[in-house]
């Protein structure tokens, strides 16, 4: 039995702690007493602490075999840096905007394994890409992904399985994709297309900045794109808010008080978008790869459709994200992946044993990826 510390007890953090506690000694840390109280009776040690201090983090993680970081994105990079400086192996799902590969030299010098971006997307889509990059000469990679409420509610037809601030960041950060070998930058929410998804129907897809590390690790693939999925009509409403200044970080003066529009909007949307306890939601993803294999042109598609689990009361997004990360934690503890440095998921999934380990781990938890393979003319 290993000792694991999970930093962050939000929706995904709690799901991961509960999963890991089945065979390990787990400690969960968060500043929110309410979040920690939700773990009562789960045989998990809880510690209330502010994770915004690097020195405090280093002290907290002493004595643990591995760290699982699930802090908010704005804290992610500094938290990861502190964990690596402390010489601890780590799996990270904080999805921070900075480039994690800048910490690779530090991780190697500290003899640390750091697996980053290890969720559903980024995460499983990278793992799939990494494996097929070993067996095919890839020309195209596309990931379509979204977390959605099962029941639509006007006006947004959306519920956020994580902080609205992180969702708004996705709606405002310029989106990068690769076309004919060139990196193209477009505004988020651009290039809206309607997509048919099994079990769901028509969804709209739009550009989002989801390629992350593969822009740097897979530069030989000429066409790569990630798009987010929402119910039709959602994007227009969000663009109305964005283009009217509701996402601005510049304070405005209202009756002598300085108000940041983004903070105000996030507060309103938190109530509008918050998932209620036991509210059903779904995660849908389609990963498409095209290329040559042994002289034959092929298309490989992996489809995911996952729902809220009423038995465990775990949301689909926490299952699909969290179990990918807990698979990676167990894989490191079992010595199946032992390379030192910072590794985005595609550099883990490239190894056949790691690829199948993670897929099987997810399958055991009823997170199923269905594969389709087609020969192209």
Name the features.
377 residues, 18 strands, alpha/beta, 13 helices, 29% strand, Rossmann fold, 7-stranded mixed β-sheet, single chain, Dihydrodipicolinate Reductase, domain 2, 7-stranded parallel β-sheet
How would you portray this structure in words?
The chain has two domains: 3-120 and 317-368, Rossmann fold (3-Layer(aba) Sandwich); 124-307, Dihydrodipicolinate Reductase, domain 2. The relative contact order is 0.16. The strands form four sheets. The protein has a seven-stranded parallel beta sheet, sandwiched between helices. A seven-stranded mixed beta sheet has the order 10-11-12-7-15-16-18, covered by helices on one side. It has a two-stranded antiparallel ribbon with strand order 8-9. With 377 residues, it is α/β, with parallel strands linked by helices. Helix 1 (11-20) crosses helix 11 (316-333) and helix 3 (54-60) packs across helix 4 (73-85). The longest helix is centred in the C-terminal third of the chain and has 18 residues, at 316-333. Strand 8 and strand 9 (182-186) form a beta hairpin. Helix content is 33%, strand content 29%.
In terms of DSSP E residues, the strand content is 25-35%
Percent of residues in helical segments? 25-40%
Question: Biggest β-sheet, characterized?
Answer: 7 strands, parallel
Specify the CATH architecture of the largest domain: 2-Layer Sandwich
- Based on Cα principal axes, name the global outline: globular
Mean pLDDT across all amino acids: 94
Strand order of the largest sheet: 3-2-1-4-5-6-17
**Alpha-beta content class:** alpha/beta
User: Do you know the CATH topology of the largest domain?
Assistant: Dihydrodipicolinate Reductase, domain 2
By CATH, the superfamily of the largest domain comes out as Dihydrodipicolinate Reductase, domain 2
